[in-house]
Amino acid sequence: MIEKNLDFLHVFRGSFQGVLRWPQLDALWQTVRSSPSSEWYLYAVGEPPPVQTANADQVERFIQEVDHLLRREHAEDYCGIVYVDNFQQPSLIKIFDPHNLGTMCGSKGGQLLPAWIISKLKPIDLPPTVPVPQNRRRWWQQLFASHK
Questions:
Q1: What is the distance between the alpha carbons of residues 102 and 74, in angstroms, rounded to a whole number?
Q2: Which of 42-51, 52-61, 75-84, 103-112 is predicted with the least confidence, judged by mean pLDDT?
Q3: Which of 27, 32, 76, 148 registers the highest number of CB atoms within 10 A of its CB?
Q4: Hey, what's the torsion of the CAs at 54, 7, 43, 119, to 10 degrees?
Q5: Which domain of life is it from (predicted)?
Q6: Residue 115: CA atoms inside 13 Å, Cβ hemisphere, count?
Q7: Pair 91, 12: CB distance under 8 Å
Q8: Which of the four pLDDT bands, split at 50, 70 and 90, describes residue 94?
Q9: Is pLDDT above 70 for 34?
Q10: How does strand 17-18 pair with strand 82-84?
Q11: What is the pTM (predicted TM-score) of this model?
Q12: Angle at 107 between CA 103 and CA 109, to 5 degrees
């Protein structure tokens, strides 16, 4: 178990590529959809990490909901708030909250954690680096009320 946690941290702290354009995000979502859903853990930083992978419906619902949220709240012609370890064979995707983008640049030396993580490795508990807004907690809890 400890080795898998170290694997998660190793990948989490590794090299990532930014998803700069919305069509790149569409392609990334398609890659996630085309892989077996049983491979993916869905994690909201600040919530307890998942103990099991998500099912196909949960993966699809999460992709639809987070994509809608990102496009609505990050109303730019570029994406730039999603990062992936490998576009062709992703194993970890970091999704930053558009609400906290001002804290990404010039934060007081600390590394801002993503709001949501899609991972093939079981996530460990990561304490949020900024307070998680209550509306985000409610959104996540409603999204996965049946996941528990």
A1: 12
A2: 103-112
A3: 32
A4: -50
A5: Bacteria
A6: 23
A7: no
A8: very high
A9: yes
A10: antiparallel
A11: 0.86
A12: 155
Spatial contact of 19 and 84, defined as CB atoms under 8 Å apart: yes
SS (H, E, C) the chain: CHHHHHHHHHHHCCCCEECCCHHHHHHHHHHHHHCCHHHCEEEEECECCCCCCCCHHHHHHHHHHHHHHHHHHCCCCCCCCEEECCCCCCCEEEECCHHHHHHCCCCCCCCCCCCEEEECCCCCCCCCCCCCCHHHHHHHHHHCHHHC
Q: Which amino acid is at 138?
A: R
Distances (CA, A) of 53 to 41, 59, 117: 4, 9, 12
Cα distance between residue 22 and residue 28, in whole Å:
10
Q: What would the two tokens of residue 95 be? A: 């999704």
Token pair of 103, please?
């804290």
Residue-range domain boundaries for the chain: 2-147
Residue among 90, 91, 110, 86 at smallest CA distance from 100: 110
